[in-house]
Design brief:
By secondary structure, the protein is mostly helical. It has one domain (16-208, 221-427): MFS general substrate transporter like domains (Growth Hormone, Chain: A). It contains 17 helices and no strands. The chain has helices at residues 3-6, 16-33, 38-48, 56-83, 87-103, 111-125, 128-140, 145-174, 178-195, 204-207, 223-228, 231-262, 264-296, 298-315, 322-351, 357-386, 388-409. The longest helix has 33 residues, at 264-296. The model is unreliable at 1-8, 212-223 and 421-440 (pLDDT under 50).
Length: 440
């Protein structure tokens, strides 16, 4: 077998049932995969409140603890997805575990019990990013992967928008607790969507980034090894952490600010409007990224994500009007929409043909989760000590630093040849070049 043959992507002809199943899975799993997200802080502050010992700092600490639990699980989750031939069962089990953990929250108030339930949700939720990307790659193959990931993200954001709209409208009448019951319904629908994708439609070799059956018996490296053998994958992991250190706390902080300004009766509805506004922007952004990432290249699009994130953080400081804050939140649709669509594509570029796709995803997601976990605590401490405007400016500065680092140090990854050692070089001149087999 020649090297060129080994790197040639397999052609796939997925059935319409499998493709519709992927659409439905990304739509219904959108709200489940992130757990309670910003609603957790709103619930703890608005419903429990200072009388029960809950403020921005303690809510941020809960989110940090849950985030750390999730990030510790990221790399093992990626390795599990690489090794298992039962990816559908893993997704279903994760959806049920996240939902069960969140449904317990209204019935417990002890700090340590709340931290434990959200940690379980974080650990279970760690399987979703690598599992969805692996299932997609196993169903459609490398040639269709970039475009399909964009479509996945489009349906994911549409699902988030619809669920947030439902949560916001119903919370006005029934209170913040409504988000728990909505999550239960979505979990059941997610299970049905996963079962729409037949098990035999998923090529488990392609799903881990292999191009040929002959390679299936190779040793599976650890996540740390996958990073250390590719310095650009290591750099991308650092950039992922920086992006989420800046981004993760922004929406949560806006939700907390709205809670203080507008009261608990309106907070859940207002944050739902913020989420819907951003998610509606993310749908076309993700579709655009999937369609144009090969033609334009990954680097300029990713730089736009960092730039928009920095601008968004600065703009939050100019007014505390609810209408203004919702308007600024639209920019989250651009930055986060780009990041979500490009993350698995860049990891796939950097691991193409190595069989390390999912374990590498898990390793990079670990650093990403580390940034996201400390983001909530960082913002909470700054808010308590120096106010919301200072917190937003700090988060904006972190995004600006990420922009500079990506600009000067990260190569264009389209056409990147995965290195055999840490001293491999990127494509010449850092310009987009066709891979051995074009990813059209």
């Amino acid at each position: 077998m020649t090297a060129e043959t080994a790197m040639t992507p397999k052609a796939r002809k997925p059935s319409q049932r499998s493709l519709r199943g992927l659409d439905a899975l990304n739509f219904f799993l959108a709200d489940v995969r992130d757990g309670l997200g910003p609603y957790l802080a709103i619930y703890l502050i608005a419903v429990r409140g200072p009388d029960q010992g809950w403020d921005e700092a303690t809510a941020g600490l809960i989110m940090t603890i849950a985030g750390i639990a999730g990030l510790i699980a990221q790399t093992p989750a990626g390795a599990l997805i690489d090794r298992t031939n039962n990816k559908r069962a893993i997704v279903i089990a994760g959806a049920l575990a996240v939902t069960a953990s969140c449904l317990l929250l209204p019935f417990v108030s002890n700090f340590y019990v709340v931290a434990a339930t959200q940690s379980v949700a974080g650990i279970a939720g760690a399987v979703f990013p690598p599992a969805l990307a692996a299932i997609t790659l196993g169903v459609v193959g490398p040639k269709m992967f970039a475009r399909r990931i964009g479509r996945n993200e489009g349906f994911n954001h549409a699902g988030n928008a619809v669920s947030a709209a439902i949560a916001g409208s119903t919370a006005y009448f029934f209170g913040p607790v409504v988000v728990f019951w909505l999550m239960a319904v979505l979990a059941v629908l997610s299970v049905g969507a996963m079962l729409m994708v037949p098990a035999n439609a998923i090529d488990d070799d392609l799903a881990r980034g292999l191009d040929e059956k002959a390679d299936t018996d190779q040793d599976q490296p650890s996540g740390l090894s996958a990073l250390l053998q590719n310095r650009y994958l290591m750099l991308f992991a650092v950039l992922a952490a920086v992006f989420h250190l800046s981004n993760a706390a922004m929406l949560t902080s806006v939700g907390q600010l709205l809670t203080r300004l507008q009261g608990k009766e309106s907070a859940t509805s207002l944050i739902s409007i913020c989420i819907v506004a951003a998610q509606l922007v993310m749908v076309p952004v993700a579709m655009f990224v999937g369609a144009k990432a090969d033609a334009i290249g990954r680097k300029p699009i990713f730089l736009a994500a960092f730039g928009v994130l920095a601008i968004r953080g600065a703009l939050y400081t100019l007014s505390d009007s609810p209408f203004y804050l919702v308007g600024v939140q639209l920019l989250d649709g651009v930055g986060a929409g780009i990041y979500g669509a490009l993350f698995p594509i860049v990891v796939s570029d950097l691991t193409r043909g190595t069989g390390r796709f999912n374990v590498a995803q898990g390793a990079v997601a670990t650093t990403q989760g580390l940034g996201a976990s400390f983001s909530a605590t960082l913002a909470g401490l700054i808010i308590v000590s120096a106010g919301y405007s200072t917190a937003f400016l700090v988060l904006s500065g972190i995004a600006a630093a990420g922009f500079v680092l990506y600009l000067v140090a990260m190569p264009e990854t389209y056409g990147f040849e995965p290195p055999a050692s840490s001293d491999a070089m990127p494509p010449r001149d850092g310009a987009p070049q066709p891979a051995t087999a074009p990813a059209e």
